[in-house]
Each structure stands twice: as C-alpha cells, then as structure tokens.
Amino acid sequence: MTKPINFEQLKASFIEHRGDPNKPPDASIAIPVNAQGDLETVLGLLADIAQYRGTHTFEVLLAINNYPEHQEPAEVEFFRSMGIVVESIPSVRRSDEIVSFSARMAGIRAARTDHLLLFDADCRIPNSTALIDWYIDHLHNGTKLAYTHVGYYELKRDLFVYVRIIIHHSVRWVKRELLGIPTARGSNYAANRTKMLYFYGQGFLSDDFNVGPTFKAHGLPIQYSGKRQLVVLTSGRVFSGGWRKLVRYWLYRLRYHLKMLPVGSDVRGRRIWTEEENVRIVKKP
User: Fold this and answer.
1) CA distances from 150 to 36, 113, 165 (A)
2) How far apart are CA 26 and CA 28, in angstroms?
3) pTM (2 decimals)?
4) How confident is the model at residue 182 (pLDDT cuts 50, 70, 90)?
C-alpha cells in the first residue's frame, strides 16, 4: 500500500472523474486534512480514489486546516493543480465540538453536490470502484446515511492491540445489530448534505458519533454493509499494548456507549466521550 505515486496520472484521473466541469458531478468526496500531519498521509487515500473505474462522476474536496494565519501550506496550490477542490482554513476550532468534526463540516459546506462521501486523511480504500459506486447508488436512490465496515492497517503485532480491536468491533456489532443504533464513524460514511447542514445548524451534531443516532431519531433511510469488497481501512499506528491501556480503553468504550445508548427524538445536549478529552458538552441552540 506504499507504492510510489505518479502525480501526472493522479491529476489525469481526478480531471476524468470530475467529468464535464459545466455540469454538477454525481457526488462530492470530502476529506479533512490536518496541515500538521496529514498533507503527505492523504496522498495514499487520493491514490486509492484515483483507481476508481466506474461510471459515476465526483469532485474531491480537501478541507485543509490547522496552520498559522497567513502561512498557507504550499501543498494547497499543488492539490488545486491536480483538479482537487481545496477549502483552506487556518483554524476550524469551536469550543463546543470535536475539532476533526469541525474540519469535516468545513468540507461539507464547500461541497457542490447533495451527495457526500466522507473519509479521513489516513484512510485507505482497497476497492474504490465498488465502494464509491455503492455509496453513490444508495444516495441517489434516497438513502440519507450509509456506511460500511472499517478495518485497520499498520496494526502493531501485539496481543493487547488485537484484544482492543476485538472489543471495538464487538461493541459496534452489538450496538448496530442488537440495539439498532447506527455506528457510522468519521473515517467512512456517506450522507445527504442538506440533512447534515440542517442537523448541524440545529445543534444536533458536534461529533461524527452523533450522526447515526440523529439520522435514526429522525426516521431517515439508513444503509449498512459489511461486505469485504466495501471495507475501508484506517490507520492503527496509534494503538499501543499493555494491560493498563487496554483496561482504560474498555472503560472508555463502556462509559461512552452507556451514555449514547438512548436515542430519542431530541439528541441535543448529549455528552460526547472521546479518548482524548473525556467530556464534550453539546450546546443547545
């Protein structure tokens, strides 16, 4: 997954996938990019997207953020030269929401279609043709939220790390299959742009974890697939071993899911647990 990237081919692919510039594309692929660490990492994901061989057209949009004012990264113009739409913002931080979600919303606002495919910069897509076609077809047929299985790459060969991944997937399965709560996550889902902007404006969304419960609470059509050909991989480099970290992770998952299990008609004001910052309060509008 680390083979050299041919940038001329990459540019040609994005121009081709965009289609007629005088017509709106079939979908928008929006990716938040942290300028402090993702400008090179995102190239792997872009190379995967460029391998698309289907018939749909789409724009690729990067929301580049987290850099000093008036010091826009040189990579911004490089990405634009490849036919990629770039929304460049020094800081997207808001006191009442997770910063990665704030960056995602910046990309969503800049999208030119109502059909969003949302990934993180460190994702890899083994079969971009199957995944992009599946997402776009469902969105065009009325689905408002769709997501597929997320796996990992670059996992450390450590028993504790493997146990942690098993806990993660087991909890998500129980939540999705037994409790009926959508488990769409930031690194891989597709959504209707109008609904995302509406729920965000109403104060329902401050983290990707809010998206599934919010769409479900409002009775919107949701699709999930666990098919192998539709899997998206996200980096597992941050996972480390040891009993202490494993116990801390288990407690974090338990506390978060106990807090988020109720899904009522009004999900505003719910607390959001994250691994980095224990509690975030979603402000009510």
Assistant:
1) 24, 25, 11
2) 7
3) 0.83
4) confident
